[in-house]
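Now for one specimen:
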Amino acid sequence: MTPLFAEQRFPACPRRFGSSPLVLGVGLLVAAWVAGGPETQDGWRTDFSRHTVPLEEIVSGGPPKDGIPAIDRPRFVSTAEADRWLSEREPVAVVRVNGEAKAYPLQILIWHEIANDVVGGVPVAVTFCPLCNTTLAFDRRFDGRVLDFGTTGRLRHSDLVMYDRQTESWWQQATGEAIVGTFAGERLEFIPAPVLSWKDFRSAEPDGLVLSRNTGFDRAYGRNPYRGYDSRSGPLAGFFQGSNDGRLEAMERVVALELTEGPVAIPFAALAERRVIELRDNDRKLVIFWAPGTASALDAASISDGRDVGATAVFEATADGRSLTFTSIGDGRFRDRQTRTVWSLGGRALEGPLAGRMLTPVAHGNHFWFAWAVFRPDTEVVTK
């Protein structure tokens, strides 16, 4: 959130986070806004007497309310048209509901952070917090109404704090929990939204829809305003008040999962080595796939040039009532040992006895470790 604001206010400053003028300028801005505290802000209809977290943990990210504008009237194009401006390794958030598949390029979401949409007849909010690398989607149906979300301009532990326009309750993006206002203590329902490469989405869903660059806003889509962020040793101190859990490096990407018996995190490093990791969630068998070929949105100045961090997907490891065990066969494909069917990273059976079937996706995140551990300190780290 902050670099967008910093570039607007300090256009002459170097854009890399490691450059002292930018960090100093951002720090001074944070100090000025935090002093007021969220409960003193004008223009809010939020019930600040209701909160589940200390209000002092919520700090300004720089922009004001809706200073980073959500996309409320998303337009979509075909994969053929999107192919003109998306490179094969570019990351896209993929949402499939009731047979409809849509891709939300991070090159767009990085400038807006929230897209209010409807997929397969279900109102959804597709969100991306660059500072935490959290790409998450939610069902917008809540308490008998459909909520629309915007950005508060605030952060908690570096993570986006959203608000719903109906009650102006404030919601923590990383957890889906309302932390301030009428709905404090309530949670939104997650919808699976894995981040895959454009190539993988286009191959799996040639008839899918892609969020258009025609958003109604003038933004430098394709450019990364957070250049070099994921090469840092940790989050920006002014926005993160927690302490890093030393079990992993702060900026290690993890597959973040909420299981029945508690939260788990699987480091990308372990997945890159093994390609497939299986878990049990009570009577459910889960499988996590990893494959190379997806660029980081937070590395190079141009997102298409970002370093390869790979992509993950999580599924129930069953099809046609049969428990399956998988192995990677390369090129982003996996084979189950029981039927010898070949599956894509996106969970579609490509060839074999189960061709055409889809594995049931499981909602998960690809958080930076610090961003998962601060909200789920009791998480178990799984490496095999």
